[in-house]
């Protein structure tokens, strides 16, 4: 897999992407024990469920896309890592260019090739460890395919993880697989029925990433502040270690991006439940057991999630779902869908926590209950 160098990384090679992909695959934890026949049946049923989810999601959301949607990709943990290494590489290109530009502006020479090679190996190892951990946690993902045409975006379903969780929960396998597909299909519809959303989200992510590129002179001062902020970053719902390096402007960007991600995740969570038992007969049992599993993580898993800021992502599901339900209770599904009309209609960090603020801004005071 040729991933080591992007189109133009400003002559810096600070991440060994080939190592990240190959080592990540070697670090993958063992998945559930399945025989070849069970594996084939699970893959076939996940593909069938991905197709079966389309009409219920369209009917529930009121969002329609063309009939020529590409089929879902059912992958193992290794293929998930490869897909995300490719995406990470594209997303980090502007960061590496910004680092190189700031070094040139400060008059510092580029690091020696040997230093870049060692640094790239170390960083590649860190990326590999991160992705290996995440590869065992992710059930599905809508890959936005950054740096590639929009029609290359794809819905990924991580078969070993889905099978592992359905067994752990003791729920009906087909119901659980369809339930997961409803969530991921909602993400696919969000990005394909709303033409501007993909580019908007990628642009916001790119701007945040470039803003995080370290300035050599400012970094030391920032490091001195870290000790007092560690407890906050690692508290429940904190941003994790990455949040320690955020300045005021980056924190504002993260808050805006988090509000959008909360909307997307919460919307998908609402849809996967609202299709109802006529589509997923055991949906209420699945939700109850799934939430109990979320709340019952072991201490090691909790600490890792806090280090990575993943607890904040878990909170996104709940905050976003409350926002979606709060808006729909006031103005219905059609009124809620005004959120997709233009970027300005996306909720602010304040609005995602207070749906009435969004309804008042977008629909006016008359839409609020008296």
Q: How large is the radius of gyration?
A: 21 Å
Beta strand % = under 5%
| Fraction of residues in helix | 55-70%
Class of the largest domain in CATH?
Answer: Mainly Alpha
By CATH, the architecture of the largest domain is named Up-down Bundle
Count of helical regions: 16
Describe the biggest sheet? 3 strands, mixed
What's the N-to-C terminus distance? 60 Å
Spatial order of the strands forming the largest sheet? 1-3-2
Count of folded domains: 2
Question: At the third CATH level, what is the topology name of the largest domain?
Answer: Lysin
Structural class label? mainly alpha
Shape: globular
Order of helices and strands: HHHEHHEEHHHHHHHHHHH
Q: Based on DSSP secondary structure assignment, what is the total number of beta strands? A: 3
Q: What would CATH call the homologous superfamily of the largest domain?
A: Zincin-like metallopeptidase, N-terminal domain
Poorly predicted runs are 1-10, 219-237, 296-300
- Mean residue pLDDT: 83
């Amino acid at each position: 897999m040729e991933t080591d160098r992007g189109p133009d990384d400003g002559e810096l090679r600070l991440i060994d992407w080939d190592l990240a992909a190959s080592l990540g695959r070697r670090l993958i934890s063992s998945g559930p024990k399945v025989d070849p026949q069970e594996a084939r049946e699970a893959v076939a049923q996940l593909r069938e469920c991905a197709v079966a989810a389309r009409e219920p999601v369209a009917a529930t959301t009121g969002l329609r896309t063309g009939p020529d949607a590409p089929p879902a990709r059912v992958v193992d943990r290794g293929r998930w890592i490869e897909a995300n290494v490719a995406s990470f590489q594209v997303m980090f290109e502007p960061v590496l260019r910004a680092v190189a530009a700031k070094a040139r502006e400060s008059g510092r020479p580029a690091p020696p090739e040997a230093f870049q090679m060692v640094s790239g190996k170390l960083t590649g190892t860190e990326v590999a460890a991160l992705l290996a951990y995440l590869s065992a946690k992710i059930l599905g993902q809508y890959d936005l395919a950054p740096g590639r045409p929009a029609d290359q975006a794809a819905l990924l379903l991580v078969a070993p993880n889905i099978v592992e969780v359905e067994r752990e929960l003791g729920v009906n396998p087909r119901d659980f697989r369809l339930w997961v597909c409803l969530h991921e299909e909602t993400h696919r519809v969000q990005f394909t029925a709303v033409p501007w959303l993909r580019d908007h989200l990628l642009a916001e992510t790119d701007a945040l990433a470039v803003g995080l590129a370290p300035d050599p002179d400012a970094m030391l001062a920032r490091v001195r502040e870290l000790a007092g902020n560690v407890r906050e970053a690692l508290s429940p719902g904190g941003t994790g270690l990455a949040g320690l390096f955020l300045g005021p402007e980056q924190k504002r960007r993260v808050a805006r991006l988090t509000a959008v991600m909360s909307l997307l995740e919460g919307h998908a969570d609402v849809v996967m439940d609202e299709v109802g038992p006529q589509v997923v007969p055991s949906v209420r049992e699945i939700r109850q057991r799934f939430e109990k599993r979320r709340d019952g993580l072991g201490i090691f898993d909790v600490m890792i999630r806090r280090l990575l800021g993943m607890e904040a992502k878990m909170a996104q599901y709940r905050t976003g779902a409350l926002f979606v339900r709060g808006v729909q209770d006031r103005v219905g599904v059609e009124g809620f869908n005004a959120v997709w009309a233009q970027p300005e209609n996306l909720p602010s960090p304040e609005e995602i926590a207070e749906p009435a603020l969004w309804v008042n801004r977008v629909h006016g005071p008359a839409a609020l209950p008296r």
